Amino acid sequence: CQMRRRKLFGLFVDYESAFDSVPHELLWYELGMSGVSSRMIRTLRALYGFATLMVDKGREDGISHPINVSKGVLQGDSLSPLLFSCYLRGIELFLELKVYTVFH
Questions:
Q1: SS3 content of the chain, % helix, strand, coil (to 5)
Q2: 29 with 19: CB under 8 angstroms?
Q3: 22 within 8 A of 73, measured Cβ to Cβ
Q4: 19-41 pLDDT per residue, tens
Q5: pTM surpassing 0.85?
Q6: How far apart are CA 45 and CA 31, in angstroms?
Q7: How far apart are CA 70 and CA 99, in angstroms?
Q8: Angle, in degrees to the nearest 10, between helices 24-33 and 80-97
């Protein structure tokens, strides 16, 4: 970088809570841009539209009321790592379009 007088940037992803942070609308967009069929995207949107979670508050307090899932991919679902990868791929493509070189 110094020889070419180019700037060097770093992007760090906190994978600890990364699955929880994926915005659904951006995920559907990235899936469409990746060539996923609109039928599959509609199916996923429907699945995620009805997704809820409950929190175990301990022995005395029991389990919380259902909470709607408004972002993130479903924990423990076998499709979630692929969905997360598609979302990250969109970020990588954006950077490449801005003439940045992306290293993994």
A1: 40, 10, 50
A2: no
A3: yes
A4: 888 999 999 999 999 999 999 99
A5: no
A6: 11
A7: 33
A8: 70
Domain ranges of the chain: 22-97
Kindly list the distances between the CA atom of residue 91 and the CA atoms of 10, 11, 18, 62, 94, in Å, as whole numbers in the listed order: 13, 10, 14, 40, 5
- H helices of 11-56, in order, are 24-33, 38-49
Give the tokens for residue 3.
């020889």
Q: Which of 38-42, 52-56, 59-63, 94-98 has the lowest mean pLDDT?
A: 94-98
19 touches 80 (CB < 8 A): yes
